[in-house]
Each structure stands twice: as C-alpha cells, then as structure tokens.
Amino acid sequence: MIQNPLYILTVLCGLIFISEWLTKNTFLKHLSGPLLVIILGALLANLGLIPSASNASPVYDSIFNYVAPASIFYLLLGVNLKELKKAGLPMLLAFVLGAAGTTLGVLVSLNLIDYQEVFGKNYAAIAGMMTGTYTGGSANFNAVALHYDVVREGAIYTGIVVADNIVTALWMLVTLSLPALMARWKPHKSLQMNLRGDIDQYTEREHVGPLRLGLMLFIGLTAMLLSNQLAELSGVPSVLVLTTIALVLAQLKVIQQIPGAKLLGMFAVYLFLVVVGAFCELTALVQVGEHAVSILLFTVVIVLVHGLFLILMGLVLRTDWCVIAIASQANIGGASTALALAKSFKRNDLLLPAILAGSLGTGLGTYLGFLVAGLV
C-alpha cells in the first residue's frame, strides 16, 4: 500500500489540506503553511506511513521533475519585470556572497573530520558535490556525482544524500524564521516595492472555471515541454529556459487576465515541499555505520558557515533580511524553495529575484562544484 501511487498522492494532498487548515484555524496559525507541510511530510515519512528517501516512490521523481518546475512557471506569470531593477542587485549580491560562504563552509568542514577515512578516495568529488548542491540545488550535486561515479559508492552516497535532505529541510525552517529573529536584534530597512494586489489572492477567492483552468494548464504544460526541448538543443538548463518563457508571457496583458496561475503555482509549491519533508529520513544514516555522525557534521558545518557568513555580510551591508533568507535558500535548496520562501514572506516583489537567483545557482553550481573538486 505504501508504494501505491494513488495512496501516496492521497496522503500528500491530505497533508497540504491539513497544514492549511491548521494554520488558519488553530494555535499553529503562527506557523506558515510551507513550514508546517515540511514538518508533516517528515513526520509521516519517519513513521513509515509514506515512502522516504531510502524507498522513494516514482511519484516523488515526477513531482521533482514536473511539479516543481510548474510551480516556478505559474508563480512567475504574476511577476512584473519592472520590479527587477529594484530588488535584482541586492538579491544577486546576496546570492554570490552565499555561494562564497558555501565554498568556505566546504573547506572548513573538511578540516573538522578525517575526510580520507570517512570518504576515502572520493573526498574531493564529495567536496565538489556539496559545493554544487549548496550553491544552487540538487541538480548540481547529481551532475558532479555522476561524473566522478560516486553514485556507485552505495552507503556513503546514500548517507550523504540523506544528510543533505535532512539539513536542507531544517535550513528551510531556519530561513523561514530568520527575518523575524534578525529584525528584533538588528532591524534593517525593508525593500518596499508597492506592488498591486494581495499575496493571498491565490486562494479559493480566485474564480477559476474549467475553461480558464484548462487554458492555464495547457499554457503551463506547453511551456514545460518547449523548455525541455530547447534545453536539449542548446545545453542551457531547462529551468532557465522555462523561466524565460514565463517572464515573456507574464508581460502580456492577455496572459495576466487569465486567473488560476497563483492558485496552481502555490499548490505545486506545497506538493513539492511535502516531498522535501518526506526525504528528511533519520534512520537511513544508520547504513553508513560509524561514519554517520561525521557525514552529518560535515554537512551541517557547511550550511552553518554559509549561513553565518551570509548573515555577517547582511549586517555589514544592512541588507533586507528577507533578501538574505531567500538568497540563502536559493543556494541551499534551489529555485523552488527560494520561491516558496518569498511566497511565505508575502513578498511578491521578491518572487522574480528569488527565482533568478535559484536559476543562476542551477547554472553555475555545477561549474563551481567541479572547480572545488579540482582544487581540493
């Protein structure tokens, strides 16, 4: 039953409903929906009620391959390119500083463990993998791992993947809380874009009939299909192509007048995040035996150094803490989680910078990963 695709989708959709209901009707309203859905996904996965990282379902692969990009596309349809000049440079600078913090974190963490004992001959490749994944997401991790054939290293590879999933999920919780915590200690001026509309208009109040919903789904699926084809021909990451298509369409009034994009986009984000939570599997680290603690320490230190470095730069530059948090999430989790974070902060003005930072990480992370692997 647990591997039944229909069962999995039923539970995932149920968790989205439960998280939204709890954040609207109970004391958990102080938590955000994205935060709670990650927690619920992790809880059920570790209780064995839905598949986790070690026995992942093809349903999860489909969500990562199709639903996550769809969330990017639909949410970007509501973005005005005119806002890029207002928030683009601060986000880009924060993202670059975050990537520098990741590289520093990899070098520091290597010196805290006996990396040759833990990782053997693969230590340089693993350093590159972690640099790549914490610059722009898991696509970079897999690219470096496949090149160095680390994927055949069984337990070590599994342990690193699990540690990565755990830390990525936990860091999402940290970045969700970061702006509120830092604002109490060192408040910085927020970048106010004076955007039109209300962030909550993706809810049931958005009138979507079968005609318009069918049209919006057709547009989204066509854009994803086209982006994949163009990516194969050009070698450009498909997420960058999809982003470009979405931004071009978003400037057309005829597209802006079709309702449903915000609703589809936010639901897709929730579906993606609940799977991120499901991949936060604690028991799988047992497979690497005595090295489990070292692998987890290695991963945690990378992200902590990244975070502390970026926070320090934020203090020096007096950057909007929401920008710092989103840029960090673009590094650690990639475009989809950065986008989810911007939505959680109710910052429509930062949607475009978030997705562009994540896309930049997808494009540059692999190169930086190979560079660090070569240098190490």
TrEMBL record:
InterPro entries: DUF819. The keyword Iron-sulfur does not apply. Pfam families: DUF819. Keywords: Membrane, Transmembrane, Transmembrane helix. The chain crosses the membrane at residues 6-23, 35-53, 59-79, 91-113, 156-183, 236-255, 267-286, 292-317, 350-373. This is Beta-carotene 15,15'-monooxygenase.
